[in-house]
Specification:
Order of helices and strands: HHEEEEEEHEEEEEEEEEEEEEEEE
CATH topology: Methylamine Dehydrogenase, Chain H
Strand content: 25-35%
Oligomer: single chain
Number of domains: 1
């Protein structure tokens, strides 16, 4: 065999080998298909206490009536019988962190959390107004004062279902059928949804000033009793509502947390106090608004954090290793303060009024703070749904 023939034969052998390798990779694949989460068939459901949506609910304000998905859908059409498909990564670090605690619903008289089987378990006030509809299955919940709302899959017809005697948090039926939300939040008398096209839709009692700024497109959203803040597409922060705390000039953030101090009624809201905090692009924290005994005094040595939550009397942040750091006062009602457990390691945290609930690294729920009823008494070992 000549040198030329030998070289040609070697080249042909390499080509054929490469073709077989490529064919084998294509046939077998490199990544195994994702496993579907099996709902807990034996999970208990809450008693039927839900109310029908009031037809007289106020009309929506702001946002688009029919948002067109342009990004990753956080509530894609689920398999038959499932509550909703798991939210895919949104591509935004701040929103993804907020979704870590999408199973936490923290109110004032009650708290409702999503269990691994997607059913909802509530603690605290056992009044029918605080109990979810029987058989409710969801992957995202939000609560405020004495009511909650849950995100439903597209085929349910309505996207947001609420239970409370405070009907101003209920989105009108037309809104619930037309919005396409990936994140929802409710305040004292209003609610808002961040949609997959980054628009924001709000509703509620007239006078709560819940109309988002014209043309708002946002990456993430935070809702307090009487005001809201959002991280816009350029990472700047905008706040609106009744006397909202205005962000520092030039602030760029990943996510923001907000709190209205106290449970004042609408006519008293303008005189109330509030504050907000944000995780900036370098993972450091910036707070602003009314400083209630140190609630906005970020510790000089805090360093980077991965999550943050604000409450009436203090603010708490989670370090990258899961440690929690809090600052501000301990509270005005020490006789009914449930103390924070020691040695916590957390994935995410949420605050509301003067309390916190968090998800630990083993997926169990832990709560502490001012306890109006028994809504913070989550038994040890109770696990939350993790997206």
């Amino acid at each position: 065999m000549s040198a030329f023939q030998h070289a040609l034969r070697s080249a042909l052998f390499l080509v054929l080998a490469a073709g077989c390798t490529a064919s084998g990779m294509k046939a077998g694949g490199n990544t195994p298909p994702p496993e579907e989460e099996e709902p807990d068939a034996g999970a208990a459901t809450s008693p039927d206490g839900g109310k029908a949506r009031p037809d007289s609910a106020p009309a929506p304000t702001g946002g688009d009536a029919s948002p067109a998905p342009v990004g990753t859908d956080g509530s894609v059409t689920p398999p038959a019988g499932d509550a909703a498909a798991p939210p895919a990564s949104t591509g935004d670090e701040g929103l993804n962190q907020l979704l870590v605690t999408s199973a936490i619903g923290l109110g004032y008289y009650t708290a409702c959390h999503i269990m691994p089987g997607l059913d909802v378990r509530c603690f605290g006030d056992r009044h029918p107004r605080t109990m979810p509809p029987a058989g409710l299955r969801t992957r995202q919940i939000t609560c405020a004062h004495d009511g909650c709302c849950a995100l439903l899959p597209k085929e349910a017809g309505e996207r947001i279902r609420c239970w409370s005697d405070k009907t101003t948090i209920f989105p009108p039926a037309a809104v619930s059928k037309m919005v396409d939300p990936i994140l929802i939040g409710i305040g004292y008398q209003h609610g808002c949804a961040l949609n997959v096209d980054h628009s924001v839709t709000c509703w509620g009692q007239p006078g709560t000033m819940n109309t988002p700024p014209a043309g708002l497109r946002a990456k993430s959203l935070a809702v307090a009793a009487y005001f809201n803040c959002a991280v816009q597409m350029d990472d700047s922060v905008v706040c609106w509502g009744i006397n909202p705390p205005q962000p520092p000039e030039g602030l760029k953030a990943k996510l923001v947390t907000v709190i209205f101090h106290g449970g004042l009624h609408l006519e008293e809201a303008k005189g109330g106090t509030r504050h907000a905090c944000a995780i900036q692009l370098d993972d450091t924290v910036k707070c602003w608004g009314d400083n209630i005994e140190g609630t906005t005094d970020v510790p000089a040595d805090l360093g980077p954090v991965k999550d943050i939550a604000a409450a009436t009397y203090n603010t708490c942040a989670i370090k990258p290793d899961g440690q929690i750091v809090c600052w501000g006062t301990k509270g005005w009602f020490p006789d009914r303060i449930k103390k924070m457990p020691p040695n916590l390691r957390l994935k995410g945290i949420r605050g509301k009024f003067a309390a916190y609930c968090a998800i630990q690294t083993d997926d169990t729920i832990v709560c502490w703070g001012e306890e109006k009823t028994t809504h913070l008494d989550v038994p040890p070992g109770v696990k939350a749904f993790i997206p």
